[in-house]
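Morning run. Coffee first, then this:
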Amino acid sequence: MRLSELKWSELHYHLIMGRDTGVIGVNDFATLVAQTIEVRKMLNGLLKRVSASLVNVVSVAASRRIDLIPDTYHLLPLTLFLSQLVLTIGVA
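And here it is:
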């Protein structure tokens, strides 16, 4: 979603260039800028809501001592075994 902020800035720049070069009329420019601002506000609201939810999830997980990134080191021997089996059998 942070990428959307960069893309919005890029779009805004292109609209200004279009207006300045005469490709986009002044009325169309005003309409398009108003629409992009509306979308940007919606995206910012969504980003704030998702960020707040993420902070809530992390704090609940921390209070319950839940590891958000499970330990997968115990799978390493199985992975090595399966890799060797694939090489031995010749399955690709």
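Residues 2-89 form one domain. Good start to the day.
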